Every structure is written in C-alpha cells, then in structure tokens.
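Checklist before submission:
- one chain only
- standard amino acids only
- sequence pasted in full

Submission:
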Amino acid sequence: MTTAQTQQKTVAAPSSQEGRGVTFTPAAHESVVGARRRKYLHLTLRWATPVVLIALWQLAASQQWINTLYFPGPDQIFRTAISQFSDGTMTEAFVLTGWRTLLGFGVGAVIGFIAGVAIGAVPILRAAFEPVLYALWTIPKLALLPLLLLIFGLGSMPLIVLIILNTLFLVMIPTAAGIAGASPELLETARAFSASPWQLFRHVLLPSSLVEVFVSLKIASGAAILVAVATEFVIGGGGLGYIIWNSWQVFLPDRMYVGIVVVAVTGSAFTLLVGVIGRRMVPWAHGL
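Returned file contents:
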C-alpha cells in the first residue's frame, strides 16, 4: 500500500460516532473547537473587562492619582453600600424604583407591541397614525412631566405613566416596521394555502418581527430605568434617583456613587435578562 493510499484511508476512517450515523471530519472538528474557544474568550472578556476597570480605578484611588474626595475608590464605595443596605436605606430605594420600572415597562411593552402589530399589519392605520406617532415620539418625555403632575398629582403615578409612554414608543415603532417588512413571498405562499388571518400572524408576521421586537425591548428596558431615575431627580419621593440627587446636594459622594453603581448594575442585569429571553424565543437571531 502506498503512502498516499495510507493517508487517504486514515482520513476516511470512521470515527467512534459512526455506529450512531455521525462522522466527524478533521475540518468539522476544528470548526467546533474554534467555536468553543471563541465562546470561552467572549465569556472571559465579558467578566474580565469590568474587573480590570475596577482594579484600575482602585489603583488610581489608592495611589492618589485622582481626588478621592470627589472620586472615592471602589473599596470605600463598597463599604458605604454595605452600610446602606444594612440599614435598609438603599434596599427601600431599590425596591421602590424597581417596581415602578417593572410596572411601567410591562404595561408600555404590551401596549406598544399591540399597537405596533396593528399599525404594521393594517396599511390604513399606518398611513393615518404614523406621522402623528413620530411627532409625539420626538417630544422629550420629561417635558410631559408637568402635565402629568397636573393630572395625577404627586406620587408614583406620573413616573409610571412617563415610563409607559417612553416604552410604548420604543417598542411600537420597531414592531410596526418588522410587521410591515414581512416577506411578500411568504405572505403570498400562506394565502395560497388559505391561511386565516391568525395563521398569517402566527406563522409569518410574528416570526418576521420578533428580532426587532426583542431588540426594542432591550433598548426600552434600559431606557425605563433611565426615565425612572431621571424623574425621581425631579419629583423626589424616594427611589434611587432621589438617593443620588440628595447625596449630591448634601455632598456625600460615596453614597451618590453607591446609587449610581446600583442603577448601572440593575440596568445591565435587566437588559441582559431581556436578551436571554430573546435568545430563547428567537434562536436564529445572533445579535441579541
């Protein structure tokens, strides 16, 4: 047997998986290994990057490269956070901001999705309401706060309504675009098989818009926390925004940074959670 024949036989030799109908070539094995390495690399970078940044921040504070009166180090912020969570101050603010955000985001997301489906699926509605909706969207939401205070008075309701309005537009516009941009070929094929309106929505329109829907939900989740905190700056009444603003007023920068860090971690976790749900619901979307 020649050397070339030996090499050919070695490459074509069945793997241990052949009995189950699966054969792995060297190229396929290399591709799987490469994908696994990239996954581990991305996971490592996801956790290592914030750790490195925090370490550099701590180093700069300990070496007095920055003014710790205005920029306290992570160790000092951590000690203040433990104290504030122990006495319940930060816990109460976190819970208050959290339920306001979740309620406003949930209601706004549902209304925005339903409105987006209606506007995207019905051309007459899109022609009638699209200009008005874009005009309303360009209005800064905080500019509506005085009007909401007149209607609902002080308390949580103006803040929740503001989050609902912001979330509604952020979800509605991409959803409408996704529904309206459904493949005409798929729609014609479904109609050729006498699909009902519900079947058209379930099997054609909804799958074609899910990527846009979950991208908009990720953006809206972070924006909901932003609106909640910004509104608490103005109306007070507790919450993370009030803690941050009040700490600045009485010049307690370490307490202020605790509030900022809690907001950042909460927003990141909320957005990542929405992304995880999106990847479960839309496994073919790689950007969520």
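Reviewer check: The radius of gyration is 26 Å.
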